[in-house]
Amino acid sequence: MAVLKASGLVKRYRDIVALNDVSLEVPRGSLFGLLGPNGAGKSTFIRISVGLLRQDQGSIEVLGLDPVSNHKEILYRVGYVPETPSFPEFMTGEEYLKLVSDLYGLGRGSRERISEMLSIVGLQKASRRKIGSYSKGMVQRLAIAQALLPDPELLILDEPLMGIDPEARIQFRDLFIDLASKGKTILYSSHVLEEVERVSSHIAIINKGKIVASGSKEELSELLGGGRVLEIELFRDIPGIEELIKGIDGVLEARSTGNIIKIILRDEDKDRIVRKNISETIQSRGGIIIDMRIKSVTIDEIFLKAVRGS
Ligand code: ADP
Known about the structure:
Layout: E1 2-13, E2 16-27, E3 31-35, H1 42-49, E4 57-62, H2 71-77, E5 78-81, H3 93-103, H4 110-120, H5 136-148, E6 154-157, H6 166-181, E7 185-190, H7 193-199, E8 202-207, E9 210-216, H8 217-225, E10 228-234, H9 241-246, E11 251-257, E12 260-265, H10 271-284, E13 289-296, H11 299-309
The structure holds adenosine-5'-diphosphate (ADP).
The site of adenosine-5'-diphosphate has 11 residues, from strand 2 and helix 1.
């Protein structure tokens, strides 16, 4: 079942089309990565999902609700972490969370809940320090603690791992995986392929306001790559070889970096013939193959293909 369902969303800022017919479903319990380069439309989509912005066309349901007309209920049931959270600098982290828990009406037990959240995000030691003295990573931790405070079913985060140190990054990843294993749904945006590939169960790739691919990781590999990449290492690079390889029947995509050529193959059945044709093409150009290996498709190959092909 989908916790978020968008259909034909369009959002314009004057003459800029930020979202161009975006349809997306986020399954319950998924760790959903919205992946795209800067300016792709990720923040716009997220802001519409939490009711901060209204789309020009199309519809969106979050937990079965319209996010704008049910903004209050969404506030309780959806945790939101904006791209650059900001807090009153003169308060301590603990005081701020107390204020938020009072606004949520958490009442009794709020002290325990706050202390639990501070511990989950690793902010106990700094909880009595003024927020003004926090690092960027600590501010991000506080934002996540705040979002988790009302125990939301869905957590939506805009570039949560940007600008934080590698150690905190690993902790957050583990936290997201843990929350998803407890039945929460997590939707987060990122422009970093590696991050999304490692953490997500589901991915949607957005480029220039359009969803170019979406689904579970397995589905994406099937859809775009047939699941396999042939990697060839040459003794030295051959300028223009990728164009020749792309012309071979059964080759979906080829690109080279120095003396390494990555080739996405279309069809497993014809593999041997395709590989033979590729070797012959390389040899006909005087190339020497040092190594040839089959790898499974990674999301970066899918991403490049999707973005290029759009
Ligand atoms: P992302 O989060 O993927 O970087 P955004 O949703 O922020 O993308 O932006 C999508 C496009 O809309 C970009 O071209 C951006 O410049 C433009 N845009 C975003 N917000 C505004 C705004 N408030 N006014 C005008 N243009 C905007």
